[in-house]
Amino acid sequence: ETARIDTLIHEKDELTGLLREWRQSVIAEAVTKGLDKSASTKPSGVPWLGDVPKHWVGKRLRDCVEGCSNGVWGDEPDGGDDDIPVIRVADFDRNRRQVVDYETLRKVDSGQRGSRGLRPGDMLMEKSGGGEQQPVGMVVSYFGPEGAVCSNFVARMRSREGVVSRFMVYLHAYLYASRVTNISVKQTTGIQNLDSTAYLSEACFVPPPDEQQAIADYLDE
Q1: How far apart are alpha carbons 155 and 23 in whole angstroms?
Q2: Cα dist from 193 to 2, 86, 95, 127, whole Å
């Protein structure tokens, strides 16, 4: 009986792996080729992108955001007005590419908060941590309340006008799965650190906003 159960577990693990690969291939196809399979294409000049739709515009990742701001960890909460949610890497849902927990409270005064406050739709990028099986560099969407901040191991990115942040999260997911993110990773004392300046200098191609939204909606569904 235990042998039968072990076989079932093995088969389920194999199926989970295949579904994970399928999901990643769907993301890759959508963010590099779009949803219109009949669209004319052009060479991107980027090895990991190949041909892209002709009407997509070439940019750098940094051109799609208003900046990349590091977070803050703050102090132990004391029940005062400065106790606010701080988003950690542990709060990332790595499958759905979004934050799922806002429960960690830290004392972060107004001077530390500054311009770090999060808004729904912001992107959060893991800057430190990771390992061989789960490299640093995951990007997720933040849909929580305003007034939270991200931790010091996370950076906040806010999309520029004309750029749909959820589309960008899926584009980052493709680059992460393709190990493009790893090019900008430095490792010291056993901790991986993402050089965000180097990573955000990578090339990308972006469709018009309405097409970005359609791709994001398709992948969310």
Answers
A1: 26
A2: 43, 20, 22, 6
| pLDDT-derived band at 217, boundaries 50, 70, 90 | very high
Q: How many CB atoms lie within 10 A of CB 157?
A: 25
**The tokens of 208 are what?**
């018009």
Longest dimension (CA), the chain: 62
Strand order in the sheet with 105-107: 105-107, 83-87, 149-150
Interval 168-207: pLDDT, tens: 999 999 999 999 999 999 987 778 999 999 999 999 999 9
- Taking alpha carbons only, the member of 89, 49, 61, 85 closest to residue 159 is 61
Contacts of residue 83, Cβ cutoff 8 Å, sequence gap at least 6:
77, 105, 106, 107
Kindly state the average pLDDT of the residues 35-53.
94
Would you state the pLDDT for residue 88? 96
Other Cβ atoms within 10 Å of 219 Cβ, number:
19
Nearest to 169 by CA among 105, 117, 92: 92
CA–CA separation, 2 and 119 (whole Å) = 50
The candidate with the shortest Cα–Cα distance to 130, out of 205, 54, 193, is 193
DSSP state string for 90-157: GGEETTTTEE-----EEE--HHHHTT----TT-EEEE-EE--SSS-S--EEE--S-TT-EE-TTEEEE
